[in-house]
Amino acid sequence: MLQHLSLARIDLRGDALPTGPALRDLLPRADFDVAAALEKVRPIAEAVRHRGDAALIDFAETFDGVRLESVRVPAEALNDALERLDPAVRAALEESIRRARIVHREQRRDSHTTQVVPGGTVTERWVPVERVGLYAPGGRSVYPSSVIMNVVPAQEAGVGSVALASPAQADFGGLPHPTILAACALLGVDEVYAAGGATAVAMFAYGTESCPPAAMVTGPGNIWVAAAKRYFTGLIGIDSEAGPTEIAVLADETADPVHVAADLISQAEHDPLAAAVLVTDSVELADAVEKELDPQVEAARHSEDRIRPALAGRQSAIVLVDGIDEGLRVVNAYGAEHLEIQTADAAAVAERVVNAGAIFLGPWAPVSLGDYAAGSNHVLPTGGCACHSSGLSVQSFLRGIHVVDYTKDALAEVAHHVVTLAEAEDLPAHGAAIKARFGWKVPASK
Q1: What is the pLDDT of residues 330-371, one digit of tens each?
Q2: Which residues contact 257 (CB under 8 A, 6 or more apart)?
Q3: Candidates 337, 340, 388, 430; catalytic one
Q4: Radius of gyration over every alpha carbon of the chain, rounded to an integer in angstroms
Q5: CA-CA distances (angstroms) from residue 403 to 16, 34, 431, 437?
């Protein structure tokens, strides 16, 4: 008989609810030490830098158990994967792509010119990154949805060169999973590489014989992907150092415990380090959710290797609070990747959330919908980074460039202020650059 599954409980009722960092320190988090992984990433990165494709082939044999002839996936493999794709899966992917395009197309910013003074304007131009490398994981599960979530915003931003990497799979002759390849074909991405983890990030950062370097790398992955992103920050742009997935549910007595349990399990299914957190002011709901966990977990496919370890881990818990106001303090301190609001008047409660990657309102908008077909993006900040970072979007792939255009008269009007500020900062040459344009006397250098 399976052991009863219970989530840890953190009781923050009464005077037990602190503020600021003290509250964050009480909340559950997975151990995810990116800094410790950096030293193991360094030799991988340097091998790719100096040996290019040969290093990628060697690492695929070491990490993925397959000897590649070529890192780049041939075009016929993409076409074949699409032809062999289950029609129902193809229809679902096509609908996911359609909805994602609807949402992300609306995010595209247009250039805008502001007249500061007569004859003086500043234009902000939005220019896409020239080339991006996108990563789709291929470890415990296959993620064609991550292909969509990365490719669609890059394409809608107008990125000219899009490449994608996913780990080589021994079961498929060294190619990435065929559903990944089929998703690439549906999206019109024909530059695909069989490379995984830190090796894929290094390939995009440095470039190899077969893969030109990219300006930016995005996409979720394991700790090695996160560490490689940190290693290359400065050389390339990144979206985030994504950690294990997490769900927080803020719920009151109106929530359905069957739904809440199912949603907690849905994220625990990803990984033994996945976080599932219920924040509630109802002990009755907490008890009912725990009662629901056992039969639902027992019926789940990945119960023993992923779900049970995730729910029993230090990163998962039920947090008891006095009321929804206190619950909001907790979820804002936690900054969940995915936050469900299952309370009375969920929309009004959600308006008071300031830290979350994405918010899901009420009983009919579970996180699973956002993972696949809401139209939103599922590449979201984790580990509390929602307090300063956003999910992947069209804006992730755009750069704002200011274009300053002033006439002589417009410059003359403000010249004395510029000179004054330059001298106040002890940068007289800055002021001299203004004076030279109007024949003002510039003191000789001492």
Answers
A1: 999 999 999 999 999 999 999 999 999 999 999 999 999 999
A2: 285, 288, 289, 291, 292
A3: 337
A4: 26
A5: 53, 39, 21, 20
- Amino acid 196 reads G
Q: Mean pLDDT, to the nearest integer, of 10-15?
A: 94
Whether residue 248 contacts residue 279, with contact meaning beta carbons closer than 8 Å, is answered with: yes
pTM here? 0.92
E strands, 154-265, in order: 161-166, 192-194, 216-218, 237-238, 246-251
Q: At what angle do helices 197-206 and 34-51 cross, to 10 degrees?
A: 50
What is the token pair recorded at 272?
């033994």
- In three-state secondary structure terms, 237 is strand
Cβ atoms of residues 31 and 349 within 8 Å: no
What Cα–Cα distance (Å) separates residue 168 from each residue in 72, 171, 194?
10, 9, 5
Determine the 3-state secondary structure of 154 from DSSP: helix
Q: Residue 127 in 3-state DSSP?
A: strand
For 431, counting Cβ atoms within 10 Å of its Cβ (0-12 exposed, 13-18 middle, 19+ buried), the class is: buried
Whether 69 is a known active-site residue: answer no
| Average predicted confidence (pLDDT) for the chain | 94
Q: Is the CB of residue 17 less than 8 Å from the CB of residue 321?
A: yes
Cα–Cα dist 238/192, whole Å: 19
The encoded tokens of residue 176 equal 């990435």
Q: Is 239:135 a contact under the CB 8 Å cutoff? A: no
DSSP state letters, 339-376: EEEESTTHHHHHTT--S-SEEEESTT--HHHHHHTSSS
Nearest to 246 by CA among 281, 277, 203: 277
- Which range has the worst mean pLDDT, 122-126, 241-245, 344-348? 241-245
Tell me if 211 sits within 8 A of 130, measured CB to CB.
Answer: no
pLDDT grade for 140, boundaries at 50, 70 and 90? low
Query: Of all residues in the chain, what percent carry a pLDDT higher than 90?
Result: 87
pLDDT at 153 over 70: yes
Single-letter code of the amino acid located at 432? A
Reading the block at residue 249, the tokens are 């549910």
Q: Amino acid letter at 79?
A: N
Our answer to whether residue 337 is catalytic in this structure is yes
What are the φ/ψ torsions at residue 144 (nearest 5 degrees)?
-65, -25
Please identify which residue in the block is written with the tokens 């993006």.
377
Catalytic residue among 338, 388, 417, 430: 338
